[in-house]
Amino acid sequence: MLTVAPVLQAAPKSHNLPKLGDRSSGIVSLEKEREVGEEFLRSLRGQIKTVGDPVLKDYLEYLIYNLARHSELTDKRLELVIVDSPQLNAFAAPGGIVGVNLGLFLYGHTEDEMSAILAHELAHLSQRHFARQAEAAQKSAITMMAGLLASVILIAAGGSEAGMATMTTIQGLAQNAALKYSRDREAEADRVGILTLANADMDPRAMAYMFERLHRANRYNSRLPEFLLTHPVTNSRISDSYNQTRGYPAETFALSLDYQLMRARVQVRTAENAIRAKLQMRDGLNHGDPVRRVAAQYGLALALLRTTEFDEALTHIQALRERFPDKIALLHTEAEIRARSGDLDGAEKLLQAALDINPGNHPLTMALAETKIQKGLPEAADPLLRSQVESRPTDADVWYLYAEVLGLIDDTTGVHQARAEYFVLTGNLDQAIKQLEFAIPMVRGNFHLNAKIKARLQEIYGMKDKQRRG
Question: Which domains does the chain have, with CATH numbers?
Answer without folding.
Answer: 6-243 (no CATH), 254-342 (1.25.40.10)
